[in-house]
């Protein structure tokens, strides 16, 4: 599973955590959130460190080599290179895959989600059996 998949799945699960669901589905979602929380925390720490390094690397500096801030922001002078490194991080494949508990799509039938949230949850959702609606 890639870093970006962990982040988007976490966000979709966080949305579902705020919904009123039957006890069985709520517990499955809670277990999935618990399973993904440690990798998410590690990713957040690595991402924060990476972003600090990239700001140092690609941020505009004055003649003394100090970062120039304007309105609390550092201007990135090589945006494509900065974005390429961020994208490479997000596309990194994680060695230890998160073991998710499956949720029947029918258990979420009354919940309205976006296609992006649905995409993030594809690995977790059990498709409906033929004949189910």
Topology, number of strands: 4
Share in β-strands: 5-15%
Q: Class by helix and strand content?
A: mainly alpha
Proportion in helices: 40-55%
Q: Main sheet: which strands, in order across? A: 1-2
Please render the helix and strand layout as text.
Layout: H1 3-17, H2 23-58, E1 69-70, E2 73-74, H3 79-90, E3 103-104, H4 115-121, E4 125-126
Parallel strand pairs: 3-4
Antiparallel strand pairs: 1-2
What are the defining features of this structure?
133 residues, mainly alpha, two-stranded antiparallel ribbon, two-stranded parallel ribbon, 4 strands
Your description of this structure?
This protein is mainly alpha-helical and 133 residues long. 53% of the residues lie in helices and 6% in strands. It contains 4 helices and 4 strands. The protein has helices at 3-17, 23-58, 79-90, 115-121, and strands spanning 69-70, 73-74, 103-104, 125-126. A two-stranded antiparallel sheet has the order 1-2. Strands 3-4 form a two-stranded parallel sheet. Helix 1 (3-17) packs across helix 2 (23-58). The relative contact order is 0.21.
What's the short story on this structure?
The protein is mainly α.
């Amino acid at each position: 599973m890639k870093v970006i998949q962990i982040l988007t799945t976490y966000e979709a699960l966080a949305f579902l955590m705020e919904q009123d669901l039957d006890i069985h589905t709520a517990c499955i979602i809670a277990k999935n959130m618990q399973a993904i929380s440690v990798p998410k925390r590690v990713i957040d720490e690595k991402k924060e460190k990476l972003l600090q390094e990239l700001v140092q690397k690609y941020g505009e500096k004055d003649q003394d080599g100090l970062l120039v801030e304007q309105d609390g922001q550092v201007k990135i002078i090589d945006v494509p290179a900065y974005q390429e490194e961020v994208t490479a991080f997000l596309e990194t494949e994680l060695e230890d895959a998160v073991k998710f508990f499956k949720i029947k799509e029918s258990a979420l039938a009354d919940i309205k989600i976006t296609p992006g949230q649905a995409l993030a949850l594809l690995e977790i959702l059990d498709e409906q059996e033929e004949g189910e609606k």
